[in-house]
Fold this protein.
Amino acid sequence: MSGKKFSLQNGETGESLELPVRSGTVGPDVVDIRSLYGEQGVFTYDPGFASTASCESKITFIDGGKGVLMYRGYPIEQLAQRSSFIEVAFLLLYGELPNAEELEAFEQSIRTHTMINETMLRLFNGFHHDAHPMAMVAGVVGSMSAFYHDTTDIQDQRHRDIFAHRIIAKIPTIAAAAYKHAVGQPFTYPRNELNYAANLLHMFFAVPAEDYEVDPVAAEAIDLLFTLHADHEQNCSTSTVRLAGSSGANPYSAIAAGIAALWGPAHGGANEAVLTMLQEIGSVDQIEKYVAKAKDRDDPFRLMGFGHRVYKNFDPRATIIREACHRVLAKLGRTDTPLFDLALRLEEIALKDEYFIEKKLYPNVDFYSGIIYRALGLPTSMFTVMFAIARTVGWVSHWREMIIDPEGRIGRPRQLYSGPVQRDYVPISQR
Ligand code: SDX
């Protein structure tokens, strides 16, 4: 406790109340309101939790005003430039950068747990060919709680470690199986000699009819995108994983709940929606029309990939991905980049518009990521699946932190009730 106090006065009773204030290492203080309802008989009200800290965490820090994002204190710009996704996964899970021996052991553990139970593979035959890959991935990840229910004692650190390595290792294999089912091709087994990103590309695009060589440019681009998407504090899907996990539910089902939450177009589903939007806009001369639609309160259309609950400045991830777009498209020899050119012009026009300036709406992580995924040959329906693969590391890290949190309790918010007050049942003959 910081010793600081926050004074409130109960307007009804005139009683003043002092609440303890807690400080973190960086960022806003929090007012500890746990005693409020017991002492004053009132709840706080914060739909969307914009002013509410749901927990204490040591994993990721965001300063939305300054466009700062740090994983365990390391700025995302440095990690994007100098680290790798598998090293970032270790950092997020265990709190420190690994030494060479730790990294080797961690990577080896992930590489050798990428296969999934053959029975799990058969689940894909239950999906129609046009099932959305996110629906398939959420379903099959949820089924892991059936395969691993008896060997998951969440009170046992060893079991928690096994769960973490297992889900991080297998989620790419499940994602690739969903993709192969969607395109009607045979499933490609993982290869232990390939690194995380290269293995995923091989499982996506290799076919039995010929050898497949992974393009290192593509693998490097995916590794960077996964690093940028790995974690993001208490976002919607991470909070969903924490809430589901707080009941003591099987952790695989908590991750499946996070996948479901991520799918929404207001969250991770935005990367798919951005490409659909860019294709709908079609050309630069249509941009003004769509920016006008985004500003029209009577029009439900929003500029997908723009705006953020926390960032009121540039999302640092969007800046890094925009630069990567230039580099990757050039390295892939893609000169015909009409959608990327359109996205750049859309950003330029929107950021000069009073509406976007006044509401502090900037491009977020989803605005440019799909441009790269598309250039790598992935269909838009797989874009949010890519987000889910990377964010699994963040979900697992937060689940682990929540499970051992001494202040942790089952999540159970209250409400402001505005429904009917008590009334007596009326027999149907009198209605
Ligand atoms: C992710 O939380 C995270 O960290 C998420 C994420 C992560 O890594 O986990 O960063 C990933 O989800 C990024 C966001 C992807 N979603 C989109 O790109 C969808 C488009 N964006 C919006 O729907 C919206 O900006 C949200 C959902 C991202 C944020 O919504 P908020 O914080 O609830 O803000 P709001 O809806 O209250 O908007 C504030 C105002 C509103 O206008 P007024 O009612 O005040 O007049 O800004 C307007 C909104 O209409 N607005 C937009 C807009 N986003 C907000 N207007 C047009 N286009 C937009 N994109």
About this structure: The chain has a mean pLDDT of 96. The radius of gyration is 23 Å. Strands lie at 5-9, 16-22, 30-31, 60-63, 68-71, 74-75.
